[in-house]
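User: Hi! I'm working on a homework problem where we have to compare a predicted structure to a textbook description. Could you give me the structure for the chain below?
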Amino acid sequence: MKGFAMLKIGETGWITKDTPACGPLDAICKPLALAPCTSDVHTVWAGAIGDRRDMILGHEAVGEVVEVGSLVRDFKVGDKVLVSAITPDWSSFAAQENYAMHSGGMLSGWKFSNFKDGVFGEYFHVNDADGNLALLPEGMDLGAACMVSDMVPTGFHGAELADIQYGDNVAVIGIGPVGLMGVAAAAIRGAANIYAVGSRKNCADLALEFGATKIVNYREGDIIEQILDLNHGPVDKIIIAGGDNDTFDQAIRMLKPGGKIGNVNYLGEGDYVKIPRVEWGCGMGHKYIAGGLMPGGRARSEKLARLVTANRIHPEKLITHTFHGLENVEPALMLMKDKPKDLIKPLVIID
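Assistant: Happy to help. Predicted structure tokens:
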């Protein structure tokens, strides 16, 4: 089979590999829709997780099952499925401790385009199929379904990590596709004021549609001053879905004592993050930082899909560019790398 791969740090290309083998608990799928991610960009061009050679990229997909292992109970050939970007080993000790995303070691539930070939090929392998696939709801938009693989659960995990409660005033730093879903999650969880930090108009407009109450443009002044002024003081909770290693410095300065930060931003470069000592209460300010890889798995995919089919969230609105055919995974990924102003998220439909 052919697939679009990371050849080495800084270099991509099409390669030919054997079709993956199916273990007794596993499934082999062919893609119906694919989406490149900024994480792919960090992986290839920043070398964020180290060198990977001839590794097929991609972790966002909707698929059709073409083979199942002998012990798979709930899926059969021909099923159209949601595929979680994070595919833990559900019998692991980490899963039993409620950290399935770290089964096998830190971040090891993230297998696609990290430890094994990803989904940007003619076929892809899914471990622990009963735990990591979910049936595609009838009539569900393929763009929305593809966003349920990663963008939706990652944004929602930011809201979970920040422990957003009804009435909280919340800042969401970064309103790309993950941050936009963080805005939607904060609204669903009952946040009062939601200050969405970003500069691109299409993202700002969608953030307001998803529930943001104010847009804070970092090009128009210091975001700390803007948010403290809008909120008349520090906020209760913060979701970090963009920025860089210095963003934690800004977040701590605008967070009240007892407040919580949920980080779901992939820090692709640098060795350290910066925490301001005094504003962190000299280490005793009860300002909490939680950074987490999104949970994967079937139950979560099914629940998030219900939010889509019940019209509570609209992740299909993240899609700004649509391509057709596996060969167009490459230009779609380059869009994510170059980030033109009109881009939020590209989608590739496999016709």
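For your comparison, note the following. The chain has a mean pLDDT of 97. The chain has two domains: 2-150+294-349, 155-291. Good luck with the assignment!
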